[in-house]
Amino acid sequence: MLKTLVEKEIREILSSTKFIYTFIVCLVLILLSFYSGAVNYKLNVTHWEAANAENLRSFEGIKEWYRVTENRIFLPPQPLATLVSGVSNDIGRTANIEPSGEIVADDSRYNEEPAYAYFRFIDLEFIFLVVLALFAIMLGYDAICGEKEKGPLKLCLSNAIPRTKFLLGKFIGSFAVLSVSLIVSIGLGSLLLPMLGVFLSSEEWLRLALIVLAGLLYFGLFLAMSIMVSSMAQRTATSFLILLIIWIGSTLILPRVAVLLSGRAVDVPTVDELGYQKAMYGTEQWKEFMNTLGNYEAIDNDNMEEVMANFNKFMDSISIAREDKMNLYRSRLNEQRYNAELERSQIAFALARISPSASLSLATSTLAGTSPNLKDKFYQQAKNYQTSLKEFLSGKTGMNVGGGMMIIELDDGSPEKDPIDPSEIPQFVYETESLSTSVKDTLPDFALLILFNCIFISGAFISFNRYDAR
Amino acid sequence: MLENNKQVILEAINLTKKYDDGVVALDNLNFQICNNEIFAMLGGNGAGKTTTINIFLNLLEPTSGDAKVCGVSSHIEPLTVKQNLAYVSENVMLYPNFTALQNLDFFTQLGGRLDVSKDEYREVLMRVGLAEQVHNKKLKSFSKGMRQKCGIAIAILKDTKAILFDEPTSGLDPKAGYEFIRLLNDLKDEGKAVLMSTHDIFRAKEAADTIAIMNEGKFLMKEKASTLFDKDLESLYMQYMAVHGLKPTTEGV
Ligand SMILES: Nc1ncnc2c1ncn2[C@@H]1O[C@H](COP(=O)(O)OP(=O)(O)OP(=O)(O)O)[C@@H](O)[C@H]1O
Ligand SMILES: [Mg+2]
Question: By residue range, what is the domain housing residue B166?
Fold first, then answer.
């Protein structure tokens, strides 16, 4: 009996023009997103390679290691980021690393391409959030009230089938059609990747599969919700309107309201405020530094070199002291701000998760490595890199690099030095999160998506059992 | 017909339905329909005919009383009851994107018969008056009468002890109407109990074994058709309606 119902449902959907058009739109959009993703990725790789080469070239001809005062690092493009861009376009992708001092990443992609910032990319996440949700609504909004409006519902229910079975048949049938169309579209899109020269590792394929799974859950949830609403409304127009309102509310309004509310709940100082505080402190410290310097008395010695050495030693000690104090102050401020920011975003995400679209966004972007904590991870790794750069340069020059240093070059007639070898400078390697960590981080969102599915499916069964089918 | 072969198939016992808004659609209705019997409910719009049928189909719960099929109450064991019921609505609506055969196939399987051959479908479609060339046409191209015939075919194929017809002849042309009465008699001879609501006095008299005139959820009259043989049913109907100070309607024919 269930088989009959499922078959009928599938046949009915496939024979409707509404399905054919929606499927074509969906397929085209998915192929487009894979295509533009692949092209963008290759372009980004070229840019990234060129920028790295350019950076190395800037060290050419330098003969003294102490002249190397900074190195530029770049966040490497990730293939999955082109499918689920997450925050990867919003955050700075490159940073100037000095052996000490703050790290500020700049040059986000949206900085360079404002049009994209405005309209965003069509990526897989957007398609899931907007197009697939609408697709599910389109196929589900008339599941029950449409059968009533068209007429066959009463005749169907005059047979000895339990209503639960009838609804189950509808649900299985439409979910099967929807998921097969989605999987076919994504399968075709995935074929495009190697054809365009983008090769995913097996781990990345697995991540993509999990992203699709999240998409299917989201999709199932919207389908269940549509069927639920369709078995509460008497007319298809009402059902469609209600679903549209829910869709707009959950994808466009709720997440924004969550961010707004969390901003009210937790006060986070702006970067400018912080910069001002740091600058004030810096000025104070500089005054103190100059005072100490003014009180310096050079040793009485005829040997110029010894005088220099003594002065340098003194300078070294007070610079280190100043720098330590500055670092301490800065890191305290940064930590305070970071903690406030963390609290705010945790509140925002928790609130936003009332809407399943937030769960979908977070799950897919975490799996693609473009979740909101990409910025932190880049910063953290840049910070580690800073330490290794500092160690490296200190080793090369035998000095505390980065402090206030006075270097007097004396032409002592020694032979011309060879230029330094820039490839000795440590390379910045960005380590992506391990798959198991990503999966662990997405568990709450998967759980929420499943929970929403269960709620809506039970809701659909309850309301259909009470539905007036006359 | 021997009396001891008779078996009550459809039965209403003090059947009462009061809608939420206070309308009493059925008021202590009682009737019995046996196998090989056609029972016609005549009545104006809003008399309670569709309500009666809906209660048998468990689409409505009775406020009190019972609607029984083969001794089983429809609101207690709806699934058992529905196994023994076929139903044709006043405006048969099927799946518009399916052909007549596909619709027949789906509903017959839903009715629990999984082994019906294409030939049998075609045979039944011919029997209700649908020519071979429309069997593979989509239902959306069908006229109301053609849909009605499809609905009747589905009811025949379900092959149940009882059939409920809600104004089955609405939308049928005169020839089809005539053929429908013949079909009804065939079904009766096959042993089915038929409950039919109708506005069509003449067809009712022609086909039915028992005729009831219904108004405001009550039977004003319930007689064997044989006893009405030489009476003019139409003037009888008018008389009953007039007694109750109501404006009768005989539209929908
Ligand atoms: N859902 C409802 N809520 C309230 N009252 C209703 C409802 N459905 C029907 N009624 C009322 O119940 C009464 C009987 O209606 P019913 O549909 O059974 O009449 P009918 O005999 O089938 O009429 P018709 O010949 O027009 O089909 C009418 O007075 C009608 O207004
Ligand atoms: Mg009616």
Answer: 1-84+160-253
Same domain? For B28 and B125 the reply is: no
The reply to whether residue A1 touches residue B109, judged by beta carbons under 8 angstroms, is yes
Angle at B16 between CA B11 and CA B19, to 5 degrees: 135
State the angle between helix axes of A435-465 and A356-368 in degrees (0 to 180), rounded to the nearest 10: 160
**Contact state of A4 with B106 under an 8 Å Cβ cutoff:** yes
B50 lines ligand 1 (CB under 6 A): yes
Cβ(B39)–Cβ(B33) below 8 Å: yes
Closest CA to B13 of B35, B34, B32, B38: B32
Instruction: State how many domains chain B has.
Output: 2
Q: How far is the CA of B217 from the centre of ligand 1 (A)?
A: 10
Angle in degrees, 0-180, between the axes of helices A304-352 and A271-294, rounded to the nearest 10: 160
Contacts with A470 from chain B: Cβ below 8 Å: 54, 59-60
Q: Are residues B150 and B181 in the same domain?
A: no
Please tell me whether residues B125 and B67 are part of one structural domain.
Answer: no
| Residue bearing tokens 């499809």 | B150
**Pairing mode, strands B85-88 and B162-166:** parallel
SS (H, E, C) A360-407: HHHHHHHHHCCCCCHHHHHHHHHHHHHHHHHHHHHHHHCCCCCCCCCC
The domain boundary, picked from B141, B159, B177, lies at B159
Residue list, CB under 5 A from ion ligand 2: B 50
DSSP A94-113: EEEE-SSS---EE--HHHH-
| CATH classification of the domain holding B165 | 3.40.50.300
Three-state secondary structure call for residue B73: strand
For ligand 1, the distance from its centroid to the CA atom of residue B78, given in whole angstroms, is 22
B166 and B243 share one domain: yes
Instruction: List, in order, residues 6 or more apart from A177 with CB less than 8 Å away.
Output: A9, A10, A13, A14, A19, A139
- CA-based nearest distance A239→chain B, Å: 20
The Cα–Cα gap between A100 and A331 comes to: 12
**Would the CA dihedral through A125, A127, A133, A139 be positive or negative?**
negative
CB-CB neighbours of B118 under 10 Å: 11
List per-residue pLDDT tens for chain A, 470 residues long: 888 899 999 998 998 888 899 899 889 999 998 998 888 888 888 888 888 888 888 888 777 777 777 888 888 888 888 888 877 777 788 887 887 777 777 777 666 666 665 656 678 888 888 888 888 898 889 888 988 888 889 999 999 899 999 999 999 999 999 889 999 999 999 998 899 888 888 888 999 999 999 999 998 999 999 999 999 998 999 999 999 999 999 888 888 888 888 888 888 888 888 888 888 888 888 888 888 888 888 777 788 888 888 888 888 888 888 888 888 888 888 888 888 888 888 888 888 888 888 889 889 988 888 888 888 888 888 888 888 888 888 887 776 665 555 555 555 566 667 777 777 888 888 888 888 888 898 999 999 999 999 999 999 999 998 888 88
A120 to chain B, minimum CA–CA distance in Å? 40
Q: Other C-beta atoms within 10 Å of A414: how many?
A: 7
ipTM of model over 0.85 = yes
Q: Are residues B166 and B144 in the same domain?
A: no
Distance of alpha carbon B226 from alpha carbon B207, whole angstroms: 11
DSSP letter string over A311-364? HHHHHHHHHHHHHHHHHHHHHHHHHHHHHHHHHHHHHHHHHHTTSHHHHHHHHH
Report the distance separating Cα B218 and Cα B51, nearest Å: 12
Q: Nearest C-alpha of chain A: how many angstroms from B3?
A: 31
| B104 in Cβ contact with B153 (< 8 Å) | yes
d(CA A470, CA B253): 23
Size of interface A-B (CB pairs under 8 A): 70
Q: Is ligand 1 within 6 A of the CB of residue B215?
A: no
Looking at B135, B159, B183, which one is the last position of a domain?
B159
